[in-house]
Amino acid sequence: MNIENPSFFIGKGDNDGFISFGSGQPDLPPPKEVYDILPDYRSFKYGLIQGQANLREALAKQYPNANPDNFVITNGASEAIDLALRALYQPGAKIFLPKPYYYSYPHNVYLARMEPVYYELENGKINFETFKKDIQNCRIVLINSPSNPTGTIQDLDVLKKIEKLAQDLGIYIISDEVYKDLIYERENYLLENGNVLTVNSFSKTFAMCGFRVGYLYAREKAIIKKVIDMKNHTSMNTNILGQEMAYEATKVPRSRIEAQTKIWKERRDLIYNGLRDLGLDLWKPEGAFYVFPKMKNPSKVVSDLYCKYKMIVYNGVWFGDSERVRFSYALDAEKITEGLKRLKEYLSKEYKEN
Ligand SMILES: Cc1ncc(COP(=O)(O)O)c(C=O)c1O
Q1: Is there an atom of ligand 1 within 6 Å of 76 CB?
Q2: Which of 237, 281, 269 minimizes the C-alpha distance to 333?
Q3: Which residues make up the CATH 3.40.640.10 domain(s) of the chain?
Q4: Who contacts 253 (Cβ-Cβ below 8 Å, separation ≥6)?
Q5: Whole-prediction pTM value?
Q6: 78 lines ligand 1 (CB under 6 A)
Q7: For the segment 262-306, what is each residue's pLDDT rounded down to a tens digit?
Q8: Hey, what CATH topology would domain 6-24+254-349 get?
Q9: Residue 200: CB within 6 Å of ligand 1?
Q10: In whole angstroms, how large is the CA radius of gyration of the chain?
């Protein structure tokens, strides 16, 4: 079976005995507060294109010196990235993307009629010297720390250097921080400056992927205006029930998010140690919920595991790396352990022939 892209798996759960290390969808429940509003919820009209005021106000309080007018509530981080790129469109512009990348980035750039160029991550990390050389003629750089699919975070000094370099060169930064609450090693570093566009989402931290609520925070008002104009003629407002739920999520105490991170960290340790004990070559993730081991012939691994071992894993090729396979560990310890058992069997029985 030739499984060509992740859409084959999206929305397929852990049914029929399948263990899914596929989609990056948290299995932990959303905070109860977000669905407590459901019995009394009665609002069905169009909402503001820019997003509901209460949610933008709550978000602005989470960023230093931010104003609610500088936020647009979007259909997930996905729409924020799409709109940000299109708002910054220039004919022939080059957009600097990490490689490996979150699989939508190159498509987002092509759909915005611009050209992706790549900075190669070395074991998941940015090499600032090559980065500095290759960024020169780009209009925008996309930073994703913590990263999907590598699970790495970028070092603080590198992020600070990038922030300054981009400002000196007049290059926009789109900072995709959807995993900012899922860091095991340190606090998130918020990329700042006038030329930074921050993208975030309620999908991961609050396990609300299907409700499609994210946002764009741009310090430049002209960008916000362009984004609202485009959204007005495309999706219009983001789903207002989702926004109301997201607003409730903003009130959840930080301690609850930290309690979740502890669970993710235990799972990280379980899968990282498990894969290493099976002899796979991988680095220890510092954030998000992905491990990205090297494997021979990833297409065959994906198809063998799916067809013969009832396991879903993602081909590294989809993320721009033809030598690796991505495992999402957004599933409980029992399933991770069962998945590792199946993988062990696969590795000993047929992997050598790949
Ligand atoms: C790095 C990254 N950015 C953006 C997204 C899209 O998130 P959303 O569900 O908010 O559209 C994902 C989803 O997996 C992601 O991993």
Answers
A1: yes
A2: 269
A3: 32-250
A4: none
A5: 0.96
A6: yes
A7: 999 999 999 999 999 999 999 999 999 999 999 999 999 999 999
A8: Aspartate Aminotransferase, domain 1 (3.90.1150)
A9: no
A10: 20
